[in-house]
Predict the structure.
Amino acid sequence: DTGVSQNPRHKITKRGQNVTFRCDPISEHNRLYWYRQTLGQGPEFLTYFQNEAQLEKSRLLSDRFSAERPKGSFSTLEIQRTEQGDSAMYLCASSTLRAGSSYNEQFFGPGTRLTVL
Amino acid sequence: RKEVEQDPGPFNVPEGATVAFNCTYSNSASQSFFWYRQDCRKEPKLLMSVYSSGNEDGRFTAQLNRASQYISLLIRDSKLSDSATYLCVVNQAGTALIFGKGTTLSVSS
C-alpha cells in the first residue's frame, strides 16, 4: 500500500496523559499536513511541513500540541496533558510541491481516532 | 462567521433524483476550490476541483461564482453509492485546506 499511513488507528487514554501519533506520507511527497476532525464537523487544519521545516503552526490548538518531522519523511503529532475535548479524529495528509502550481492534491491517511476518558 | 459554510442537511433523496449542494466562503483571497467526499468513519477523498468556468465529471457538475463567493455541486441520477458527506473546501496560497462542516446525503431505493 503506497498511500498515507497513520498509527495507531485508535488510541484510548486517560485525561492528563501524553499521546503521540505517527504519520507516514506518500514517499515522494514533500508536504505533510495535520488536521483534526470532531464529530459533525469538517477537518480543521492544524499545521504543515515542507520537508522538515514546519511552515505554519499558528493553528495548533494550544501549546499542548506539537508536531515534528525530523528527517522530512514521517511526522509525529504529540498532545501533552490530554483533555476530554481533545477526543477527535486526527488526520494526516501529504502532497507534492510542483513549481508553477498553486495547488497540489492532498491525500489523506485513515486517521487516528483519539478518545480521552 | 465561519470561513466555509454549508447546509449540513441531511438530504434524503430517492435513487435517480437530482440533488444540489451549496456553499459560501468568506475569504475573497481563496485561490482553489474543491468538493471532497467522506464516507462514514473514513478519510476525505477529493471528488473534484471547481473552476470558474464550471466543470463536469460524469453525473457531477461543480460551479464557482467568485463574485458572490459561492460554490455548488449538482449530482444527477443519484445512486445508492453516492450516500456520503460532501465537504466544500477552499485553499489559500496552496497550503491549508479549509473545510466546511459537510452536507450529508442519503440516497434510498
Observations:
- The mean pLDDT of chain B is 93.
